[in-house]
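job 3f2a | input accepted
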Amino acid sequence: MQQFEHIQSLWHSHTVDVKISADEMLNQAKKEVNSIKAKSVLTIVGMAAALFAIAIMWLFMDQNSWATQIALTIMISTIAIYTFILYSGYRLISKNDFTIHPNDFLAQLKLYQLSRFRLYNQLFWFYASALTLSIILYFFELSANFSLSVQILVIAGSLAWMLFCSTIVRKAVIKREKERLSLLIEKFTRISEQFEERS
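job 3f2a | predicted structure (199 res):
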């Protein structure tokens, strides 16, 4: 036991001072920012594709029920609003060139972090509730063709999927993105400090 405590005290007393230059840190940050931008663009394109597919479905499929019309209207409106919010977030992070103005980019990055927090915590529930309502209304017309057991299975499966996405998946995404953005903000803070020391 004493040997373990001795090794542990040696480990804690031994610190390595790693010096990374501002250029190396900037290159790492550039890769991370480009990754965030690419992911944002893919998400926006995916949402736009879903919006287009639902609009095509609405135009070319026969809907006899008022519930289906309302469901598709809610679905299209919700996806369009969410896509616009995602695009606004993308514009925040891509507005400034971080190699020229690290301080301005750092301020935009902090705003982006706040917008993502708001998106995942407040707007997510609006998005999930609106989509759940639209799916329930959409299945209202389709359910006439199914037996009661299939209807119950479809409703239970949809609700279980929404709960799974709303809890486990959402929390994992929030945690990963929070860590990633916090690390990026820390890097840009250090880069800004190093550039200030040079001047």
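job 3f2a | The CA atoms of residues 92 and 108 lie 6 Å apart.
job 3f2a | closed
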